[in-house]
């Protein structure tokens, strides 16, 4: 029976709880504050051997409720990262992945991880292009997939598939 | 007749190794400072007369619609900027409007050279989220089909790479025809099993759609034996053909640390001396029940990556033959045949990630289920972690310092499939 989530490695779990001050860390990854993301990522790579960048996937969540009311959630995106460490031959540690997530309200930005992992460069360009998350300090903030003059970000929830766009009206 | 070579590559000395992040990598490949892909041209020699050249998107040797903008000093590449997206079809957006059972035929078209892997990755992610496990027979069938598919994919890769290097004059057309000839046999096997030559739609949530026909295993083993026998011819072509040797050896030597940071895996990482394979290190399907040997090379150049692929053809044939001997009896799907497409529903806000070792590296699917129960049969967000995209992002680092003609060889050795890069 495959587990729903690959469990977070115990040593990283402990470090993560101490670093972020969390009581429990959900299996789909801790939510890292944006201002601490860069230092968190660097420590993951340098101290915990997570050299292998897997993906960065941004998900758009539209506004819930109206401003000022209880339970109001602004228009925002959730950026989910996942990194891997390769098997450690000497200690017999198997290969493990570690997910972490960042909430980014629309109109604000999150630090780019391209200076920590080279692979984040194109991944973040793709997520900016498709979902519209802005990565501050990205070395090359251009669209990756869509034409440069394309209106909007297609993977947002409010971007209807039926919308006519030149020349595919 | 199998041709036995006294050596596969000349002078295989044991490399000096070092430990980085717990991984053993060859010292000689680790470089200090990689080329800067955002290099300002003004910082290059101001006296130089740079020429800008556009390569693609319609170019026979870019393996699909890839455009590369190159700045040349004489014949040497100074800077390379790849442009992708010419084949962007919005698969991830489309998947948000489809039910879980309908996803399989859509993701088939991502990596159109190895559709089996795509189907397997996405169905494994859905199964993880649902908490079901396919029966053992289906697990075996998945591994067998994946290995046969891997052979087919590597044949295309090695064959078209030969075409890139030699063309009709240098003997490249020969290996291309050899590889296509052998791939035909594999497609016949798949056709007998699923009715389709590619885009099979044979994996489904919880198992397989089509059971193995009677006598298929015998036929498959014959084909695999034939391919193993002929794979020595490819090796001979790659190692002993002077054109191939001259054009590929020492070209685009890849730092394993750069490959790891970039997320490039599979033959690219193994060609740079990193011994990592998901089939062995994080077994899925039936791989846990069989020994998987991982071929690696320590040269790190374009030839090493191709040699890893040829070695993997033989290894995959061995694994598939061994698994064919032990296919257990039983059901092939954990769920009842799904008639209504919306029958599979996921819990609110669940996420799942599943990865398989595709022919180009780690092919993963990240899935976020709907937060609204009424539309629970659609994914909320689906992200396909395509190995080709990560491999292609190495291009700006590998090209500088090489000649224009080498760029073709480098792209071929990275083996990107544009359908998967652009999605």
Whole-Å distance between the termini of chain A? Answer: 47 Å
Strand order of the largest sheet of chain A: 1-2-3
Strand content of chain A: 15-25%
Number of strands of chain B: 10
- Portion in helices of chain A: 10-25%
Topology:
The complex is a heterodimer of chains A (169) and B (423).
Chain A: H1 10-20, H2 37-48, E1 52-61, E2 76-85, E3 96-105, E4 109-111, H3 120-131, E5 134-136
Parallel strand pairs in A: 4-5
Antiparallel strand pairs in A: 1-2, 2-3
Chain B: E1 17-20, E2 23-26, E3 50-55, E4 67-73, E5 76-83, H1 91-95, H2 103-107, H3 115-130, H4 136-166, H5 172-194, E6 203-204, E7 207-208, H6 216-240, H7 242-248, H8 256-262, H9 267-271, H10 278-281, H11 302-325, E8 351-358, E9 361-369, E10 379-385, H12 387-392, H13 395-398, H14 404-414, H15 418-422
Antiparallel strand pairs in B: 1-2, 3-4, 4-5, 6-7, 8-9, 9-10
Describe the structure.
In chain A, helix 3 (120-131) links the parallel strand 4 and strand 5. The longest helix of chain A has 12 residues, at 37-48. Chain A has 3 helices and 5 strands; from the N terminus they run ααββββαβ. Chain A is α+β, with helices and mostly antiparallel strands and 169 residues long. In chain B, helix 3 runs antiparallel to helix 4, helix 4 (136-166) packs antiparallel against helix 11 (302-325) and helix 6 (216-240) packs antiparallel against helix 11. Residues 1-11 of chain B have low confidence and may be disordered. By secondary structure, chain B is α+β, with helices and mostly antiparallel strands. Chain B has 15 helices and 10 strands. The chains are: A alpha+beta (169), B alpha+beta (423). At the A-B interface, strand 1, strand 2 and helix 3 of A face helix 1, helix 3, helix 8, strand 8 and strand 9 of B.
């Amino acid at each position: 029976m495959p587990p729903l989530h690959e469990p977070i490695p115990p040593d990283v779990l402990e470090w993560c709880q101490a670093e972020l001050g969390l009581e429990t860390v959900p299996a789909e990854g801790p939510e890292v504050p944006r201002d601490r993301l860069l230092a968190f990522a660097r420590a993951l790579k340098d101290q915990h051997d997570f050299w292998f960048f897997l993906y960065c996937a941004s998900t758009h969540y539209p506004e819930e409720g109206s401003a000022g009311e209880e339970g109001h959630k602004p228009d925002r995106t959730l950026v989910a990262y996942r990194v891997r460490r390769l098997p450690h031959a000497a200690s017999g540690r198997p290969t493990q992945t570690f997910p972490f997530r960042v909430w980014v309200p629309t109109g604000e930005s999150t630090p780019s991880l391209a200076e920590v992992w080279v692979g984040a460069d194109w991944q973040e360009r793709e997520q900016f292009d498709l979902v519209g998350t802005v990565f501050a300090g990205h070395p090359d903030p251009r669209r990756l997939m869509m034409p440069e003059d394309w209106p909007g970000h297609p993977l947002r929830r409010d971007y209807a598939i039926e919308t006519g766009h030149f020349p595919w009206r | 007749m199998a041709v036995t070579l006294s050596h596969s590559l000349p002078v295989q000395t044991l490399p000096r190794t070092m430990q980085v992040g717990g991984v053993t990598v060859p010292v000689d490949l680790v470089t200090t400072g990689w080329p800067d892909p955002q290099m300002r041209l003004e910082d290059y020699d101001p006296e130089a007369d740079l020429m800008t050249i556009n390569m693609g998107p319609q170019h026979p040797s870019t393996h699909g619609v890839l455009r590369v903008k190159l700045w040349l000093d004489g014949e040497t590449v100074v800077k390379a900027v790849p442009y992708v997206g010419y084949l962007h079809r919005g698969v991830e957006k489309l998947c948000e409007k489809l039910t879980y059972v309908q996803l399989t035929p859509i993701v088939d078209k991502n990596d159109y050279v190895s559709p089996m892997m795509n189907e397997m990755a996405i169905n494994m992610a859905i199964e993880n989220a649902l908490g079901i496990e396919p029966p053992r027979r289906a697990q075996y069938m998945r591994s067998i089909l994946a290995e046969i598919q891997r052979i087919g994919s590597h044949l295309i890769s090695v064959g078209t790479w030969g075409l890139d290097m030699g063309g009709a004059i240098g003997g490249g057309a020969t290996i291309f025809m050899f590889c296509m000839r052998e791939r035909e046999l594999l497609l016949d096997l798949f056709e007998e099993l699923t009715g389709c030559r590619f885009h099979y739609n044979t994996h489904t949530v919880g198992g397989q759609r089509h059971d193995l026909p009677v006598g298929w295993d015998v036929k498959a083993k014959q084909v695999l034996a034939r391919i193993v026998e002929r794979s020595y011819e490819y090796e001979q072509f790659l190692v002993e053909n002077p054109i191939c040797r001259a054009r590929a050896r020492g070209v685009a030597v890849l730092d394993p640390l750069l490959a790891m940071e970039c997320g490039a895996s599979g033959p690219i990482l193994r060609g740079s001396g990193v011994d990592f394979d998901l089939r062995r290190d994080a077994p899925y399907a039936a791989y846990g029940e069989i020994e998987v040997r991982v071929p690696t090379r320590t040269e790190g150049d374009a030839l090493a990556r191709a040699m890893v692929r040829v070695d993997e053809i033989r290894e995959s044939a061995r694994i598939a033959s061994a698994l064919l001997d032990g296919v257990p009896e039983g059901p092939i799907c954990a769920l009842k045949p799904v008639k209504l497409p919306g029958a599979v529903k996921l819990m609110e806000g669940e996420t799942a990630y599943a990865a398989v070792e595709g022919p180009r590296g780690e092919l993963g699917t990240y899935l976020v289920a709907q937060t609204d129960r009424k539309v629970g049969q659609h994914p909320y967000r689906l992200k396909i972690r395509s190995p080709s995209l990560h491999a292609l992002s190495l291009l700006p680092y590998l090209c500088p310092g090489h000649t224009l003609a080498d760029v073709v060889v480098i792209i071929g050795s990275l083996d990107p499939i544009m359908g998967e890069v652009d999605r």
